[in-house]
Design brief:
The complex is a heterodimer. In chain A, about 30% of the residues lie in helices and about 15% in strands. By secondary structure, chain A is α/β, with parallel strands linked by helices. In chain A, strand 7 and strand 8 form a beta hairpin. The two termini of chain A are about 40 Å apart. The model of chain A has no long low-confidence stretch (mean pLDDT about 95). By secondary structure, chain B is α/β, with parallel strands linked by helices. In chain B, the strands form two sheets. In chain B, strands 1-6-7-8 form a four-stranded antiparallel beta sheet, with no helix packed on it. Chain B is globular, with a radius of gyration of 21 Å. The relative contact order of chain B is 0.16. The chains are: A alpha/beta, B alpha/beta. Chains A and B meet through helix 2, helix 7 and helix 8 of A and helix 4, helix 7 and helix 8 of B. Chain B: Belongs to the LeuD family. LeuD type 1 subfamily. Chain B: It comes from Protofrankia coriariae. Chain B: Pfam families: Aconitase_C.
Chain lengths: ~375, ~200
């Protein structure tokens, strides 16, 4: 627990340079899709499949279908990788990527940092895809160079030459293609009990009556009842008790910087509990070297040790029944953060702004 | 693994879509290290409600779960499959399964049967009207049968054969050990291993 290398596997693997382009990476956790940000084929498996890998070094698989999600243009100021992936999931649905591996492409994806790319690929599973990938490029190589397990010297040049061959051919075709206009995106939050039930922060809680499909309408009704939300309520009016900043989705140094930037010189709203949890001990040390821990503490947030914390409610960091969180994690399922808890998925910047006002808020609203 | 050939039993209609594995087996159950005994935790949050369909005595002893679309989303926890099996389910029928759940289910001999949404709806309505009807899941014939209804389902030949024979994946793969060894010999030397790197050899930490 106190090892300086300890942390969430999807933070530590890339940090050590163990995640490299072209690799096949499996792990007994569905957010293994994170590693696809490096152009690796990475996906989560169950316990028996882990046993199979350890026994044979292989896994029998059928070829997946391919899906291209192309994000054209540039993300507007204040719109982050988390907003982008939440918007993608809302568009294609929690089953939209089922049976597929997604390749994220386009100008807005190319412009993302490796941290942002990891956030996007991380939540591929929430869109139903086991894996999501981004073609390796100079951003990838610069991020990898000099890491403990990255090749060095002549081997580095050999590796980079190979990695450059991995990008999808220009004339490749996909089983399914989705195009997103980055300019239309804005800070995004979830209102329901699956990650596809999301909307722009500027929107209102949806009305089940607006859904023609009876099964969908029933699902929305059920979600709003669980979340204790009234149709038509502006999402900006939704008050929270708790803010969680961390997880394998948003527990990296860039995420903590984004949250600290909002909280610097501000105070957490009265009665709001704010947990800031680095994704690894290295992220924690880096953040402390930059003084981010002091920013969080001065604002009234708790600065915690590295781990999964309130993402999945497996340890004492949980919501009590009826409590509501703004969370930078990846799942807003019923009870995910504690029995009866209500979760709104948000970006680190929105989480921090929400901490200040006690209501779902974007930094631009402050 | 126990072979699956054909199964006939009564069904429970679970009219919910996006049933995630956190609902099937909450995370507090993941701290156990056994593979058995998870039936008590199956849908435990929902079962706390006396009106939940699994608590209806007319469905006691049912062995087939009829669920809404996108069943088994979320966490890769195989405990979800173990919980369904431990409770007594032999098959789950849904319009769409999450990929990891489906792999886990078929690996353990719990048949995940995908049928068109309209067919699942017809079966669900039929069971709601008469909980005593029996449904047959016939893997050999690749079809589901209920009174007045026969529906074909897809399953790849390899998975079907493995389930029909009750074969173990590891044993099957080890038959190809020579090919695995030959492939491993081609692995570039610069790819990482999990051997610790001595302190001070890297520029970044």
């Amino acid at each position: 627990m106190n090892d300086p290398g300890q942390g969430i596997v999807h933070v530590v693997g890339p940090q050590l340079g163990l995640t490299q382009p072209g690799m096949t990476i499996v792990c007994g956790d569905s957010h293994t899709s994170t590693h696809g940000a490096f152009g690796a084929l990475a996906f989560g498996i169950g316990t028996s499949q882990v046993e199979h890998v350890l026994a044979t070094q292989t896994l029998p698989q059928r070829p997946p279908k391919t899906m291209a999600v192309t994000v054209d243009g540039a993300l507007p100021a204040g719109v982050t990788a988390k907003d982008l992936i939440l918007a993608i999931i809302a568009r294609i649905g929690t089953g939209g990527g089922q049976g597929h591996v997604i390749e994220y492409r386009g100008e807005a994806v190319r412009a993302l940092s490796m941290e942002g790319r990891m956030t996007v690929c991380n939540m591929s599973i929430e869109a139903g895809a086991r894996a999501g990938m981004i073609a390796p490029d100079e951003v990838t190589f610069a991020h990898l160079r000099g890491r403990p397990h990255a090749p060095a010297g002549a081997a580095w040049d050999e590796a980079v030459a190979y990695w450059r061959t991995l990008a999808t051919d220009d004339d490749a075709t996909f089983d399914r293609e989705v195009v997103i206009d980055a300019a239309e995106l804005s800070p995004f939050v979830t209102w329901g009990t699956n990650p596809g039930q999301g909307a722009p922060l500027a929107a209102r809680v949806p009305d089940p009556a607006d859904y023609a499909d009876p099964a969908l309408r029933a699902s929305v009704e059920r979600a709003l009842a669980y979340m204790a939300l009234t149709p038509g309520t502006p999402l900006r009016d939704v008050a929270v008790d708790t803010v969680f900043i961390g997880s394998c989705t948003n527990g990296r140094i860039e995420d903590l910087r984004a949250a600290a930037e909002v909280l610097r010189g501000r105070r957490v709203a009265d009665g709001v509990r704010v947990l800031v949890v680095p994704g690894s001990m290295v992220v924690k040390a880096d953040a402390e070297a930059e003084g981010l821990d002091e920013v969080f503490r001065a604002a009234g947030a708790q600065w915690r040790s590295a781990g999964c914390s309130m993402c999945l409610g497996m340890n004492p960091d949980t919501l009590r029944p009826g409590e509501r969180s703004a969370s930078t994690s990846n799942r807003n399922f019923e009870g995910r953060q504690g029995p009866g808890g209500r979760t709104h998925l948000v970006s680190p910047a929105v989480a921090a702004a929400t901490a200040v006002t006690g209501r779902l808020t974007a930094p631009a609203d402050l | 693994m126990e072979a699956f050939t054909t199964h006939t039993g009564r069904a429970v209609p679970l009219r919910r879509s996006d049933v995630d594995t956190d609902q099937i087996i909450p995370s507090e159950w993941l701290k156990r290290i056994e593979r058995t005994g998870f039936g008590a935790g199956l849908f435990s949050e929902w079962r706390a409600d006396p009106a939940f369909v699994l608590n209806n005595p007319v469905h006691a002893g049912a062995t087939i779960l009829l669920a809404g679309p996108d069943f088994g989303t979320g966490s890769s926890r195989e405990h979800a499959v173990w919980a369904l099996q431990d409770y007594g389910f032999k098959a789950v029928i849904s319009a769409r399964f999450a990929d990891i759940f489906r792999g886990n289910a078929l690996g353990n001999g719990l048949l995940a049967v995908a049928l068109p949404a309209a067919t699942v709806e017809a079966l669900t309505s039929q069971v709601e009207a008469d909980p005593t009807i029996e449904i047959t899941v016939d893997l050999g014939a690749r079809e589901v049968r209920a009174p007045g209804l026969v529906a074909a389902f897809d399953i790849d030949d390899f998975t079907r054969w493995r389930l029909l024979e009750g074969l173990d994946d590891v044993g099957l793969t080890l038959r190809h050990q020579d090919a695995v060894t030959a492939f491993e010999a081609t692995r570039p030397g610069w790819l990482p291993t999990t051997v610790p790197v001595p302190a001070g050899v890297s520029e970044k930490h």
